[in-house]
Amino acid sequence: MSLQVPTFRSKPPGHSPSTKAVILVGGPSRGTRFRPLSLDVPKPLFDVAGHPIIEHCLSAITKVPEIKEVFIVGYYDESVFRDFIKDSAKEFPHISLKYLREYQALGTAGGLYHFRDAILKGNPDRFFVLNADVCCSFPLGEMLRLFEDKDAEAVILGTRLSSAEAATNFGCIVSDAHTKRVLHYVEKPESPISSLINCGVYLFSTECIFPSIRSAIKRRTERPRLVSYPSSENLESSFYAEQADDDGEDKQEVIRLEQDILSDLADSRQFFVLETRDFWRQIKTAGSAVPANALYLQKAWQTESTRGDLAQPSANIIPPVYIHPSAHVDSSAKLGPNVSVGPRARIGAGARIKEAIVLEDVEVRHDACVLYAILGWSSKVGAWARVEGTPTPMTSHSTSIIKNGVKVQSITILAKECAVGDEVRVQNCVCLPYKELKRDVANEVIM
Ligand code: GTP
């Protein structure tokens, strides 16, 4: 294989541009911060607001009429997304959805490059790239408009944090406020440079992004470590043939948009930022699924077409609340706001649930209280028990808090098949699968 990128034909007059989309899902060695929930389900398939995380991305993509082809790119086993793809084909029959598997982690740009032939098939003009672990309103239509207005080569979605200091944990964008042009991009800068950060949603012209990745690969291969692969013909084989390290990833092979590509685009390309004023969160830690659940439920509640999927408000339902049709909630239980109840879950009389995700087959017995928590598959919460976390400000991007001088999770998480005894209180804990809690616990990881 050579490093040659297919040549692009200039588009004839009157040509209507075509667009594809890629959702980056990573693989089993990613999502470690999502443990213990990712021990049982790959993070992109974890249910938030009643739907797998990845479905929120896909559903936004399907609202862009000109997108007919979507790729899920990752290095999970082929079987992982099979059912999701089958179900999506029924729900979105006008879209072709395929999984493209990297043989190992190639990085957020390396995966795109590896599958460039599939992406470029049919000669599309541009394509969206969405990080699957992002929760936002995905204003893809607005990104397309900016792309066209500016005759852009790349558009990035940005959001503003309260301070440039807080932004140093993210990719930071320095832009021209008037033209929206990206002047400078630095991933997790050492000192504050801007409060505008990368949301992990991009629109790239096919003519710009592949040559940029190719240049980054070339720079990488020209580093001293790779002098044993000097010829241009085997640049690509050297790039892809190195031995994996202990994590199953060869850091030398990994090419990342954030570290290796975006700052170059800012220097040399027509690169613009669309600043969203709508909600945005990352879904990194398991606890971050709770604020993401709240944001997606609130959005569904405010949108006429999805409002009907949620439980109707009543004395005991404080919206927004999602209850799966197969779940059973006693009429005296009080739920909400921001609660999702999964298939076949049973919620007993007098129970109180708020700011929580209750997964499949969970049982919450009478008069139990569940606040700021995730109850894992088939877990049981006893009568009069309390499973609770601590509220954090909606604007906070962290799911940890300091309690008694120790950093703990603000969300209490029970993994699969945990059992909390009657009248037991579990506070700010992360509980690994199959644990039985018979006494009160606080600020602990229960292994
Ligand atoms: P940090 O945020 O730096 O801790 O890393 P992360 O793995 O949590 O997220 P990152 O920002 O690197 O990844 C952004 C998105 O790309 C996530 O949806 C990841 O699952 C996905 N991703 C990361 N690495 C790869 C990769 O090698 N291949 C593919 N296909 N996707 C990836």
Automatic annotation (TrEMBL):
The keyword Transferase applies. GO terms for molecular function: GTP binding; mannose-1-phosphate guanylyltransferase (GTP) activity. It is an enzyme of class 2 (transferase). It holds the Pfam family NTP_transferase. InterPro entries: GMPPB_C (IPR056729), Hexapep_transf_CS (IPR018357), Mannose-1P_guanyltransferase (IPR050486), NTP_transferase_dom (IPR005835), Nucleotide-diphossugar_trans (IPR029044), Trimer_LpxA-like_sf (IPR011004). Its EC number is 2.7.7.13. It comes from the Eukaryota. Keywords: Transferase. Residues 20-214 form the Nucleotidyl transferase domain. It catalyses: alpha-D-mannose 1-phosphate + GTP + H(+) = GDP-alpha-D-mannose + diphosphate. Residues 317-444 form the Mannose-1-phosphate guanyltransferase C-terminal domain. Pathway: Nucleotide-sugar biosynthesis; GDP-alpha-D-mannose biosynthesis; GDP-alpha-D-mannose from alpha-D-mannose 1-phosphate (GTP route): step 1/1. Belongs to the transferase hexapeptide repeat family. Involved in cell wall synthesis where it is required for glycosylation. Involved in cell cycle progression through cell-size checkpoint. This is Mannose-1-phosphate guanyltransferase. It comes from Lineolata rhizophorae.
